[in-house]
Amino acid sequence: DPYARLLLEALKQSGCTVFNDRHFSCENCDGCVSGGFDAATSQIVLCQNNIRQQSHMNRVVTHELIHAFDHCRAHVDWFKNVKHLACSEIRAANLSGDCTLMNEIARFKFGLKGHHQTCVRDRAIRSILAVRKVSKETAEKAVDEVFDACFNDLEPFGRIPHSKADAKRAYRDFQNRDRYNANL
């Protein structure tokens, strides 16, 4: 998957190499949660009982790898700062493919103008409420306060990958980033 390949390489370049046998865990989970990032162990949990398709698993892995990338590069205070959590959830919803047009159509959510931003905002709020015992108003306020900056933080992709083709281009661009600087 080009999304995961790019994120794994970005993590490695940031000094946080991911080892499959150490940093991924498949478990049975409660409710309808598909996965999570455990900051205490730097481990991605995949909920094997709630993931039924490869495409869904690819999105979950990408979403959680974005959290791992944020954890590595930004030293996110996951437990005490809801704005940090909100920012990472915005980035994950924006960059993982969670809000692609096809996924939204499958959820029976349609819209044209500003729909991607609306989806990102709504999914970030839902994710916060799924992992923290805060009010909906607190989650909404945190998301609103950091939305613009975090929505526009496209690292390591450099663009919002709306498809696998976009993710492949982003991966190719990521691999070539240092070539320009090396020629100066």
Automatic annotation (TrEMBL):
GO terms for molecular function, please? metal ion binding; metalloendopeptidase activity
* Entry's Gene Ontology BP terms: mitochondrial protein processing; mitochondrial proton-transporting ATP synthase complex assembly
List, alphabetically, the Pfam families matched: Peptidase_M76
Q: Which InterPro entries match?
A: Peptidase_M76_ATP23 (IPR019165)
Q: Which domain of life is it from?
A: Eukaryota
Q: Which UniProt keywords apply?
A: Hydrolase, Metal-binding, Metalloprotease, Protease
Q: Name one GO cellular component term.
A: mitochondrion
Q: Is this entry keyworded Hydrolase? A: yes
Entry's EC annotation: 3.4.24.-
Q: What family does the entry list?
A: Belongs to the peptidase M76 family.
What is the name attached to this protein's record? Mitochondrial inner membrane protease ATP23
Name the gene behind this protein: Atp23
